[in-house]
Amino acid sequence: MDRVPILKIGDILLVSIQVDMSDQTAVQLQEDLAERIVATGSHGVIIDITALDIVDSFVGRMLSTIASISKVLDAETVVVGMRPAVAITLVELGLSLNGIRTALNVERGMELVAAARADEHDLEELDDEADAETTASP
Amino acid sequence: MDRVPILKIGDILLVSIQVDMSDQTAVQLQEDLAERIVATGSHGVIIDITALDIVDSFVGRMLSTIASISKVLDAETVVVGMRPAVAITLVELGLSLNGIRTALNVERGMELVAAARADEHDLEELDDEADAETTASP
């Protein structure tokens, strides 16, 4: 039981972390996630940490790494379900979870992914228009 | 870390079982689920068992109990992500998971819940029509 299951829901991959992460479990999760993002063409990864009583620097770094890998594979990462006590400890430890978006719960996380995708889409359209204008101009 | 987190996604509650269930964890999960169904008015419970290498009679009974409780609270229960080896062991052990619907993955589980709700809705409408006819007749 040392693999964290990855659930696909529509365009999104959902991971619920409930066990203490060992080095091996963390690396396995990163590999599994990268593979699933590519295999499914998902654009969002939601990581639920409701069950975690504490997020130490190891878990924090793992979350950052997952977010970076996902970013490279064109997927947004949102961490959801953080307990108030965990947030307080994170700040006290000076861990800032760089590059990680957070949301209160899975539903808001999904909205955040959708919104981020929409923004990106708008930007791409603007780029396309700009390209078109550049091409059109003599 | 002896509580299994319950995630709300739209009309559905999602539970991903990843830890070995003790008596206490199982009872806690049943209570938490019953409370969340009532609090959120959810109509479906999806239990993901991808992470389980084995489903013994204890876990089987827990799943049946959860399904029965949900049924009373007007929610469908679907168990998803069962491994082939688990299915084989279940049959060999003579456990039949009475009253439990299963689906291959979360997405199909959601479809199953939606379909079950639609069927029920149709039946209710038929009842209403029948009632209306009965009332209309002299």
Automatic annotation (TrEMBL), chains A, B:
CDD domains: STAS_RsbR_RsbS_like. Pfam families: STAS. InterPro entries: Bact_StressResp_Reg, STAS_dom, STAS_dom_sf. Residues 2-113 form the STAS domain. PANTHER family: RSBT ANTAGONIST PROTEIN RSBS, RSBT ANTAGONIST PROTEIN RSBS-RELATED. This is RsbT antagonist protein RsbS.
